[in-house]
Amino acid sequence: MVRSMISHSSLLESLWEEALKIAIYILNRVPTKAINKSPYELWTGKKPNINHLHIWDCLAKARTYRLHERKLDSRTISYYFVGYAECSRGYKFYDPTSRSFFETGNARILEEVEFGKEENIRNVVFEEEFVNDIETTPVIGDNVQTIVPDIVPEQDYDEVLPQTPIEQPQQPQEDDIGLTEDDPINFFQAMQSSNSQKWIDTMKDELKSMQENDVWDLVELPKGVKPISCKWVFKTKKDSKGNIERYKTRLVAKGFTQKEGIDYKETFSLVSSNDSFRIVMALVAHFNLELH
């Protein structure tokens, strides 16, 4: 299967490892003749979803995180689809220009489109034909009247007009424009940014703070239960002039992945509502209880 994928691909043979990974990914979701179930279904107990499968090495338009991106720059760049993300619900792409890989879920895969060779318009030379180069044959008639034009004598102009310099408007230079880096949206972008070390320091501070405040308790995972994953949130705190004051990182749980009746049964809020407070106070007054 890997040999067939590489032979029908325009990518380099050095990417055989990516072809092997996606081949295993597909075979694990294909039913076997012996059991009529896929290895994925035998392992997880669920039927695999194959709606996200795509042709290997097909063209894709992906939105990537680039430093110093300007307003008029193209939002998407053409890449090759080479696999699926390992740590998220995204795809893995290959950039032939920089020969690098990256993962993102913000992409549009075009399976029916191939990379085309762009024509360099600047190399096109247009041949110009000048009228002076064309040989002309004069036509002489029988009755030719010679016209002598009046010769206007040349005049000497001794007066020299003063030259007034024209002030050219100052054009803004690219270096004059302050380029600000956007906050990374995931861990991968934070590590690729120029402030990666600062983000690492804030992540260490966040983990240290959680350990000191006993945010979690380590327990054994019950059988058949999947833990709720978490993600890093990166933010920069700025002053009124837009200058960065400090970097802030938070480790948050993906609460949207919870299922009612499995992961939670009732909601919890640190701040009580007015109705709840009134009910509690009414019960305390009615039964003559002490409130602590």
From TrEMBL:
<dbReference type="Pfam" id="PF25597">
    <property type="entry name" value="SH3_retrovirus"/>
</dbReference>
<dbReference type="InterPro" id="IPR012337">
    <property type="entry name" value="RNaseH-like_sf"/>
</dbReference>
<keyword id="KW-0378">Hydrolase</keyword>
<feature type="domain" description="Reverse transcriptase Ty1/copia-type">
    <location>
        <begin position="213"/>
        <end position="292"/>
    </location>
</feature>
<dbReference type="InterPro" id="IPR057670">
    <property type="entry name" value="SH3_retrovirus"/>
</dbReference>
<protein>
    <submittedName>
        <fullName>Uncharacterized protein</fullName>
    </submittedName>
</protein>
<feature type="domain" description="Retroviral polymerase SH3-like">
    <location>
        <begin position="58"/>
        <end position="120"/>
    </location>
</feature>
<dbReference type="GO" id="GO:0046872">
    <property type="term" value="F:metal ion binding"/>
</dbReference>
<keyword id="KW-0479">Metal-binding</keyword>
<dbReference type="InterPro" id="IPR013103">
    <property type="entry name" value="RVT_2"/>
</dbReference>
<dbReference type="InterPro" id="IPR036397">
    <property type="entry name" value="RNaseH_sf"/>
</dbReference>
<dbReference type="GO" id="GO:0016787">
    <property type="term" value="F:hydrolase activity"/>
</dbReference>
<dbReference type="InterPro" id="IPR039537">
    <property type="entry name" value="Retrotran_Ty1/copia-like"/>
</dbReference>
<dbReference type="GO" id="GO:0003676">
    <property type="term" value="F:nucleic acid binding"/>
</dbReference>
<dbReference type="Pfam" id="PF07727">
    <property type="entry name" value="RVT_2"/>
</dbReference>
